[in-house]
Design brief:
two-stranded antiparallel ribbon, alpha/beta, seven-stranded mixed beta sheet, 10 helices
Length: 308
C-alpha cells in the first residue's frame, strides 16, 4: 500500500530517482488540485529564510528608489530588486540574446510569477498585469514601484482606456512586457495568444519594435509552473521552500517591426511562431496540449478529465 509523500525533502541524497520523480509528480498534482503542499521543517526554514532576505532587500533598496525619484533621476533600483529577488527565490537566470533597451514591446510565454523577476531583472521592463494584483498585499505595492500597467482582462468595454495606458507606459518606460497566453502554463505547452492588449500596435507607435521572449525552466518547469487550482500563497511557499536553485533561461529572440506583420493577430501569430520554435528546440521534443481548459479568467480540468 502506497502512502502520499510528506514533502520533497524525502528525496535525500542517494534516494531512488524514480521514487523522487513520482513523488514530485504527486506533489504537483496535489497543488494543481488546490490542495496545500506539505512542507517539512527544513522547507519551512528555507521559506522563512528567503522571506527574511526579501524583506531586507525591500528595506535597503526601496528607500534608495524613492530617493532617486525625489531628485528626478532614473532609478535603477526596481530592476536590481527584481533580479535580486529572483536569485533569492532560487532562480539562476541566464540571459540569451540581446534585449532591446527602449521602444520595445516584449511578448513572452508565461509559467510563474518568477517570470516577472527574471524579465524585469534582465531588461528593466515594465509589465502588464491583472488588475487584481494591484490590491494584493505587498506584491501590488512592489509591482507599482516598477510602474506596472493593470488591466481587467474581462473588461472588454474598457479596452480603449487600457490601450491608452499601455501607450503612456511605452512612452515613459521604453519597454513593456505582455504575457498574451493570459495565464501560466507548465513549460511544456504554449497556449493561443490573446490579442486585445496588442491593439496598442494598431498602428504601431513610431520606432517601436516587437521582441519575442522565450522562458525555459528546464527540467523543473513542471514543478515551478503555477497551474490548475493552486493558490498564489501555496505556490510561493512551494517555490520559496524548495531545496537548492534552478536554471532559468531568458531568450530574447530576434526582434521584428510590427509594420511587417500588420494587425495584432498577425503580430501575435508571428511572436507565437518564434517562441514555439525556440521552446521546441530547448525541450528537444514537440509541445504537448495543455492539461487544463482555459477561459477568460480562470482555468480548470476539462469535464471529461475531471470525471475520469
Amino acid at each position: 500500500m502506497s502512502h502520499p509523500p510528506r514533502s520533497s525533502d524525502a528525496c535525500f541524497r542517494g534516494a531512488d530517482p524514480l521514487y523522487c520523480a513520482a513523488m514530485n509528480s504527486d506533489l504537483r498534482a496535489q497543488a494543481a488540485q488546490g490542495l496545500p503542499t506539505p512542507l517539512s521543517l527544513r522547507a519551512q526554514f528555507r521559506l522563512w529564510r528567503r522571506v527574511a532576505m526579501l524583506v531586507i532587500a525591500v528595506v535597503v533598496l526601496v528607500p534608495l528608489h524613492y530617493l532617486w525619484r525625489l531628485f528626478r533621476l532614473p532609478s535603477p533600483w526596481p530592476r536590481l530588486f527584481l533580479g535580486l529577488a529572483g536569485r533569492i527565490a532560487g532562480a539562476r537566470v541566464q540571459r540569451i540574446g540581446v534585449p532591446l533597451k527602449r521602444d520595445v514591446f516584449y511578448i513572452s510565454n508565461h509559467l510563474s510569477w518568477l517570470d516577472i523577476l527574471a524579465l524585469g531583472g534582465t531588461s528593466g521592463t515594465a509589465f502588464v498585469a491583472k488588475a487584481e494584483l494591484a490590491t494584493a498585499p505587498a506584491v501590488g505595492w512592489l509591482a507599482g514601484l516598477n510602474r506596472t500597467v493593470y488591466v481587467k482582462r474581462e473588461n472588454r468595454l474598457g479596452v480603449a482606456e487600457q490601450i491608452n495606458q499601455l501607450r503612456d507606459a511605452l512612452e515613459e518606460n521604453w519597454a513593456v512586457t505582455v504575457f498574451p497566453e493570459g495565464t501560466t502554463t507548465d513549460g511544456q505547452s504554449l497556449l493561443p495568444f490573446k490579442t486585445p492588449m496588442l491593439r496598442v500596435l494598431e498602428p504601431p507607435p513610431p520606432g517601436v519594435m516587437v521582441q519575442p521572449v522565450m522562458l525555459d525552466y528546464g527540467a523543473v518547469a513542471e514543478e515551478i509552473g503555477w497551474i490548475g487550482e493552486e493558490g498564489g500563497i501555496n505556490n510561493a511557499k512551494r517555490i520559496l521552500g524548495r531545496k537548492g536553485s534552478f536554471p532559468l533561461k531568458v531568450s530574447f529572440l530576434e526582434p521584428f517591426h510590427p509594420r511587417d506583420f500588420p494587425g495584432r493577430k498577425a503580430i501575435a501569430a508571428e511572436s507565437r511562431r518564434r517562441i514555439e520554435t525556440a521552446l521546441v528546440a530547448a525541450l528537444g521534443k514537440p509541445l504537448r496540449p495543455f492539461a487544463y481548459a482555459v477561459d477568460a479568467v480562470r482555468y480548470e480540468k476539462p469535464p471529461e478529465e475531471a470525471g475520469a
